[in-house]
Amino acid sequence: MLTRHGYPGHKLVAYTPKLRTEIRGNEIDLFLKNHPEYEKCAIIDDREDAGWNVRHSITKLFKTDEQVGLTEEIAEEVIKYLNK
User: Fold this and answer.
1) For residue 83, how many other CB atoms are within 10 A of its CB?
2) Which residues in 1-84 belong to E strands, given as ranges?
3) pLDDT by 10s per residue, the chain, length 84
4) DSSP string covering 19-74, please?
5) How far is 55 from 25, CA to CA, in rounded Å?
């Protein structure tokens, strides 16, 4: 959906480490610590804990509904955030 809106798909990061933790934000934070080249990160997830324990200065959580997924409206918000 982001690619359809003109955001280059090759700039999207798809995978984070799988930790034995219940807090999704820990996985995202570890990924960012191991990849300091990223200056901004859009977290798109249906779990509120995806934004916990993450460096908030470079991240923003865009929470989706687990039944609906990524909507056009959220995709547009993500694109605006990343293009700032």
Assistant:
1) 9
2) 41-45, 59-63
3) 667 766 666 666 656 667 777 788 888 888 888 888 888 888 888 888 888 877 778 889 999 998 988 898 998 999 899 998
4) -S-S-HHHHHHHHHHH-TT-S-EEEEES-GGGGTTS-TTTEEEEEPBTTTBS-HHH
5) 9
Taking the model in full, what pTM does it have? 0.74
What residue type is assigned to position 9 of the chain? G
The residues facing 69 across adjacent strands are 65
The number of C-alpha atoms within 13 Å of 43 and in the hemisphere containing its C-beta is 27
- The sign of the CA dihedral 27, 28, 33, 36 is positive
- Cα separation, 39 vs 59, whole angstroms: 9
Which two three-digit tokens encode residue 55?
Answer: 């460096």
Residue with tokens 């934000």: 25
SS3 assignment, position 84? coil
